[in-house]
Amino acid sequence: MIMLLTKPSTQKIQGVDIYYEHYENPGKTTLILLHGFLSSSFCYRKIIPLLKDEFNLIAIDLPPFGQSEKSQTFIYSYQNMARVVIELVEGLNIKEAVLVGHSMGGQISLYAVREKPELFQKIVLLCSSGYLKRSPRSLIFGSHIPYFYLYIKRWLAKQGVLKNLKNVVYDSSLIDQEMIDGYLKPFLDDQIFRALARLIRHREGDLTPDDLKKIETPSLLIWGEEDRIVPVQIGKRLHQDLPDSRFFSLKDTGHLVPEENPDYVSDKIGEFILT
Length: 275
Fold this sequence. Notes:
It is built from twelve helices and nine strands.
């Protein structure tokens, strides 16, 4: 059977246009792919071809990232983003799915499975954020200042896409023009910087150890041992706090595990879900 990519689609959820790609494979387990902060579904470009024959895949651009709307009214809390994921999954008539979340997408996956555990049979965390507190009050206050978004834009411009990519991968030889263009594209729209100011304002802290210990959903954790964004110790701590979890780490691998080790990651996901 030939697997086909549906036309990239959008659905209006909570008044916001949410972009997603559906790699249809009827009758197969559904995987919901969630990206991290300052990223998009582009980060799964290397593992989608490795998984699409075995699974029904849905890659979502979380607001305000990727090609989803950069709304100036949406509340950019993790809980709200998790509800967007839940509403999209339910709107597609999917009764049961597996969440795959990278970095911030991992934390949103945890929020989603806490909110609706019956909808998600398993969860895969790839270098998931964890144990972060809410932004400092001074930063939250600053986000209300007119033109604060210009400071965000200036800071990100100073960092530059290439510098950021070198910070998230262990082997910088993996960085090519396609990767640079793919991660730069969402930031060509100035509206994202206004939305990021709102995200700073709305983002609550990550789930607490007590919250995590109540999540009984089977979890797979995969980490890069050279991760400079979310150190491997965070993964080991999540492994301890999540009651039914498996943990694997990769040598010579940084934060962007879906890009750096797509074969290993897709193999582990397949084993975890199909066994």
